[in-house]
Write a structure and sequence with these properties.
Helix content: 40-55%
Distance between the termini: 16 Å
Strand content: 15-25%
Oligomer: single chain
Protein name: Arc/MetJ-type ribon-helix-helix transcriptional regulator
Order of helices and strands: EHHHEHEHEH
InterPro entries: Arc_rbn_hlx_hlx, RHH_8, Ribbon_hlx_hlx
GO biological process, one term: regulation of DNA-templated transcription
Shape: elongated
Mean pLDDT: 90
Length: 142
């Protein structure tokens, strides 16, 4: 199988594309966050949480980069158009999609084309595709 070609690195998506997560905190932690917000250290709870996450990611940046390289992950965003996948099918190849960030498959890609051209999908982050394509690839998504 052929690895999906890596586009230029884009560590953080521009344009505000984000995913919502939910976390549970004990009341004392939440109260301390609220106190820091009240004291003006952060504009709101989300600002503190984002800052804390970015600080932890920066702390582990070297390990993250080494792991991305070792696992041959595409870092950033990778989009597959219908034309991209038709070219893969014409070449009689299959893609192994491995992305840390966002992987997306165009809305006009049929489930049949996706199954014929994509051998596996491993995404750490977000995977955008039509429900029909996700269903067609369900046994190949790790």
């Amino acid at each position: 199988m052929k690895k999906a070609a890596a586009p230029p690195e884009t560590p953080r998506a521009k344009g505000g594309e984000s995913q919502k997560i939910t976390i549970n905190l004990v009341p004392i932690d939440l109260g301390q966050i609220d106190l820091l917000v009240e004291e003006g250290f952060y504009s709101n709870r989300t600002d503190l949480i984002r800052t804390a996450i970015r600080n932890q990611l920066a702390l582990h940046a070297q390990v993250l980069q080494e792991t991305v390289t070792r696992r041959a992950l595409v870092l950033g965003m990778q989009h597959f158009s219908r034309q991209d996948l038709e070219a893969v099918r014409t070449a009689r190849e299959r893609l192994d999609i491995q992305v840390l960030g966002l992987a997306s498959i165009a809305a006009d890609v049929s489930p049949e084309l996706a199954r014929a051209t994509i051998g596996s999908v491993a995404v750490l982050g977000a995977f955008h595709a039509t429900p029909a394509v996700k269903t067609a690839l369900a046994d190949r998504i790790r």
